[in-house]
Amino acid sequence: MNNSVGNTARLIGAGLRALLVLTVICGVIYPLAVTGIAQAVFNDKANGSEFKDRSGQVVGSALIGQSYNLPKRNPDDAEEASKPDLKWFQPRPSNGLGANGVNTQYSLILSGATNRSADNGAVNGLCTAGAEEGTLCAQVVAAKDAVITDNSTASYTVKPEDVPADAVTSSGSGLDPDISPEYARLQIHRIAEQNKVDVKQVEKLVADHTTGRTLGFMGEPRVNVLELNTALKALAKS
Length: 238
Fold this sequence. Notes:
Elements: H1 2-41, H2 43-46, E1 50-52, E2 58-61, E3 66-67, E4 98-99, H3 136-151, E5 178-179, H4 181-186, H5 188-195, H6 199-208, E6 210-211, E7 222-224, H7 225-237
C-alpha cells in the first residue's frame, strides 16, 4: 500500500515538473524568442503592417482594405446605405470594410465572400439590368451604373467597357486593400475635380503608388487604396 502511494506521488511530482518545464519553454521562452526575432527582423510585419500619415499617426493597416464613405445622417439606422465620399479613391465593393476618411475612425466589421456563383441572377448567361433584386448580377449591374455615374465629370465620361471587374465585385475575403491600376485611373478625373487639383498631379500620384507583379511574374499590378488616399490628402493640402 505504501509503495503504491509512493509511486503515485512520484508520478504526480514528475508530471508537475514536466508541466512546469514545458510551460516555461513553450509558454515563456519560445514566445519571447519568436517575438524578439520578429521585432528585430520583420518589425513592420510583426506590428500589423501599420501605415502612418506624414504626421506619424497610424491610419490603418496596409493589408486590410477600408471604405471611404460620407457620414450617415442617422448613425443608428442600420438600414441606411452609406454613400461614398467622392473626394477619395474608392476601394472594391465590400460590406466588410471598416470606415476611414484617412483618420482614426477605423473599425473592422466582418470578413467574407458573397458565396454566390458568377451566373447568380444571370439571364441567358448574361448579367442585365433586369436581374432579380438581391442576386449577384443585380449587385454588379447596380455597382457598374454607380461607378459610371460617380466618375463621369464635365470633361470626362466613363464608358461601360472601361469599368474593370474589381470596381464592381468584392474579393474573396471582402478586405482586399488593393485595386487595379485601371480602376485607380478611372477615378482620376473625379478625384481631380472634387479636390480641385490638376489631373496630371493625380495621374502621377496613381503612377507613383502602382506596384508591379511580385518578383515580376506573380499576381497582378495593384494600387493600395489607403496609401494612395493618404498621399492624396497630403497633395490636397499642399
